Amino acid sequence: MSYPAQRTASQSITTGDTTVSLTALINARPVGGFQILTIILCSLLVFAEGYDAQAIAYAAPAISAAWGIGKGPLVPVFGAGLTGIMLGSLVLSPLSDRVGRRGVILISTLAFALLSIATVFARDPTGLAIIRLLTGFGIGGAMPNAIALTSEFSPAAKRPLLVILMFCGFSLGSAIGGIIAVALIPHFGWQAVFWFGGLMPLVLMPFLYVLLPESITFLASRNGADPRALWLLSRIAPDAPPASRVLLDEEKTSRGSVLELLAHGRLLMTALVWTVFFMSLLDLNLIVAWLPTTLATSGAKMGAAVFAGSMFQFGGIAGSLIVAFYAQRLGLGRIMAGAYVIAALSIALVAGSHDGSLVTMLAVAGAGIGVIGGQCGANALAAAYYPTTIRSTGVGWAFGVGRVGSIVGPVVGGTLLAMKMPAQQLFLLCIVPILIAALASAIVQRRINRAPLA
Questions:
Q1: Cα→Cα distances 423→108, 166, 171, 302, Å
Q2: d(Cα 233, Cα 250) in Å, to the nearest integer?
Q3: Is the confidence at residue 349, as pLDDT, over 70?
Q4: Whole-model pTM over 0.90
């Protein structure tokens, strides 16, 4: 972000000799326009990421037809994209805790935008897999930082709500991507899906460059007298008295250190968060990957099978909103556990009515409410639990571990289906990991009751 008034603001602010507690100031004030703008920019970013992450799934049938190949050669392409997201989360998140959120977001966004466009020039599955791997790396770098940045500009009381609302953009991008693909592919071919996926973040880039700020808590954790931090403080609280230093009231840790996620009493909580992410994303991606296919092979019409995938995503948006609005009242871990129990019951209903009927569609929507709603709660949990110096590392590694589950889920599902396991049994099997996520979330709530999140 450019700081047009930085010099003037810092001169006027540093004339006093006052220290402001950033945590207390943000927590005591309503969310202002500057914070809302930052959160909207992050939501637009994850919308583009959600679209791009699912683009290959929507384009795959057209690619198969255009290249004259079956589904088999494209399986590694799906895995490559998910692997790229995992690696980007693991590698780039610790870097952003060292150099800042904004720069990593900008570079990652530009990278996945250009690589999405590069996808249209792929000529075989191998080249396509390599490009999707690199595209996923960019998505994995930007996504955790959008969550961290939203968290760091949000008051504690509204942090789960705002993080979850922001991340609804990802589910919305994933859901609307199917509608856009259906409209574009018949007229412009499968390449149009990726042209759109690349041009969208490129159009967003100038707005991010000019308007997206660096994290004020990141700046304050390095130097409380940083003029950029003082200028951002004046934007958040324009009516507050001038300050000469911003104080960040939280523990000091080694910046961007993965080992810090397991130190200072964080081992159990980190293990619980990783368990939730792994089990939740395993189920989420297994359902996304195989629900339409299993519905179609079970007798449902193709249109109903495709519509079921959208119902899952739109149900997820509704679930995210429910979790967001009740997290503060009921407790984040408790509402996550409840969401996952709803998911388990809904998945059981999907297994029992696997025919594309209205009951099936409602059950699929219920599964989306529970699985995606619970996952969005987990995003907010990771952002709220870790201190500033390791927040992106904490969120990124939770996503990285979760992405291992997102790779395992579709592979295990495909293997079991290839072994002639009935679709009903496969979905009944999905109940096990989601109940493990529910149990881990309930234990999380007990830990929160003992030591509330900041």
A1: 38, 34, 25, 16
A2: 18
A3: yes
A4: no
